[in-house]
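Entry 14. Ran structure prediction on the chain below.
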Amino acid sequence: MRKLINRLLLFLTVVSVTACDDKDTDTEISTEWEVVSNSDTDCIRVVNHTSDIFLPKIIYVNAIYKEGEVELRCDNSIGFTLIGPNDEYKSVDGHFSVSKVDNHTLKIHFERCESRKPEYKEQLMVFNTDNQATFNTFIYISRTFGELSPNL
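Output, structure tokens:
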């Protein structure tokens, strides 16, 4: 199943980048993301890869076992579509959920989990649209479920 999802993500990325080549270059659309809130910067770290030469955008979110949440905002986006029903996604194994706050903001909520299982990693894709073009943002989430992660 994961291989199928990865192939779908790769296909959609190629389609998106190819589609952007045919667009009028006079109109530049910003897909910059910012962290608007973080309940605990010691427990949740966000790295935003926003290089203009790299499409799609990539956001790395690293969290430990504690409960917390982070909100991410895209400055020039009309809407989001998450892989999941009703613009919400819940990871049972990762003990987190992603939901749409409004047409520009996503919230990632981490449940407390001290299972001490190995590190968990998952990737999500968000489609940012502006009625003229569609851009993809990949969100890579990793968690540890015991002591502090050396990556944090």
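DSSP finds one helix and ten strands in the chain. Will compare against last week's run tomorrow.
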